[in-house]
Amino acid sequence: MFAAKPHPLLVPFDGKFDVRKAPTAPDKDKGDWKDRLEAETKAIGEAQHRLFADGRYAVLLVFQALDAAGKDGTIRHVFSGVNPSGLHVASFKAPSSREVQHDFLWRTTAELPERGSIAIFNRSYYEEALVVRVHPEYLEAQKLPERPSKTFWDDRLRAIADHERYLAEQGTVIVKFWLNVSKHEQRERLLERIDESDKNWKFNPRDLDERALWDQYMDAYDACLRATSRPWAPWYAVPADNKHFARWQVAKIVNETLEQLDVDFQPVDKKTRALLKEAKQRLLAEKD
User: Global pTM?
Assistant: First the structure.
């Protein structure tokens, strides 16, 4: 079963992580991160080709963040070099009336990757322990058989951890990214959405209502990351105030993960080699 290696951005597995102490910006102000990203994106595309040919693993990449942290842009830039046939992106917003009639993990299960492919969850089942925790009134639509107990949120996080362990045991490699944007930087990006006409479509007045709940969201993320960062399904807290740095870091971690799997094109057996030889002879014998 896959197990993450030590990394500076890795959320520890001992439950001692503190979201408020996690950096939101890189150590230095400027770097050639945009140029470095290009090499990483190319490597991801090549690695995905080997992943598909190898066929033993599925890869699930989960992205969570507050509004304007850069999830969409990160996904678009980091995976620009991947063959679309081997990549699936699923975005999860407010659940539909049909989805709330099922358990909270149901709607994401159908979007899980098959062996040899990569799936990206832009938000995920973690919304049920983040947004719903901050807005417990959303639970009313789920018509739970019992009123939430004192351990309700801990139980949900335990269910997620158990779910991810099961997937990992079946060959799904899970890597999760929390794009950690500062409150100041979020404000600047929301202002850009108002001031720049080509970004007006991104602005949602409700984002300001959610911003007012910043501390509650920090508490929810704190509990979430502590309870569910595991060797087989690690969280990485990625400083996201600089978009180029964040994208480069995500790309690096994805490549390091794929390299760790040691996937490659499988050698063919004698029977297959004989068939290939015969096919070549037939093709060469054809007349133009």
Answer: 0.93
